[in-house]
Amino acid sequence: MIPQLGFAEMLIIAVLALVVVGPKDLPKMMRTAGRFMAKVKAMGNEFKDAFNQIGADEELANLRKEIDELKSLGQISNLSDETFEEDMRALDNELRGVANSDDVTNLDDDIKAYDAKRKEVQDKNLKTNDAKANDDN
Q1: Which of 5, 21, 58, 124 makes an SS bond possible with 9, Cβ 3.0 to 4.6 Å?
Q2: pLDDT for the residue 37
Q3: How far is the C-alpha of 55 from the C-alpha of 50, rounded, in Å?
Q4: pLDDT value of residue 38
Q5: Which of the residues in the chain have pLDDT under 50?
């Protein structure tokens, strides 16, 4: 456990340093102590960064291992974006319990309907704001 230094302790240390070192050499000693503490802090940061790097490397190695295992099982070999999207839609349909993909609403149609509704609301708000601005003038 690192001892806590309060104001009184710091004052005693400063007075002792002034008496032992002397007022002439005290600034030099404080500068040297500051440099030493900066080096200690830099070494601590390097040590911490090294451990973080080791952890990141280990995590990356685990991810590579998992990808290699999936490739060896033949689950993701030469998977294109379109194939991936089809597989994801099939999985989504399966999870939702839909027997037939015709029963599922088309996502693109939903997006277009949402955009149209949002545009309609924005236009209505714009007209309301214009009307308020005209009333204020």
Answers
A1: 5
A2: 93
A3: 9
A4: 94
A5: 103
Distance, in Å, from the CA atom of 14 to the CA atom of 30, rounded to the nearest integer, reads 10
State CA 13 to chain mean position distance.
43
Instruction: Tell me the C-alpha distance between 35 and 39, whole Å.
Output: 6
At 97, the amino acid letter reads G
Which residue type is seen at 56? A
Asked if 116 and 108 count as a contact pair (C-beta separation under 8 A), the reply is no
Distance CA 40, CA 36 (A): 6
Q: CA end-to-end span of the chain, whole Å?
A: 71
pLDDT value of residue 103: 47
52/46 Cα distance (integer angstroms): 10
Q: From CA 114, how far away is CA 65, in angstroms rounded?
A: 42
How big is the chain by its Cα radius of gyration, in Å? 34
Instruction: Give the Cα separation of 60 and 68 in Å (integer).
Output: 12
How many residues belong to the chain? Answer: 137
The b-or-e profile of 49-74 (16+ CB within 10 A means b, else e) is eeeeeeeeeeeeeeeeeeeeeeeeee
pLDDT at position 108: 66
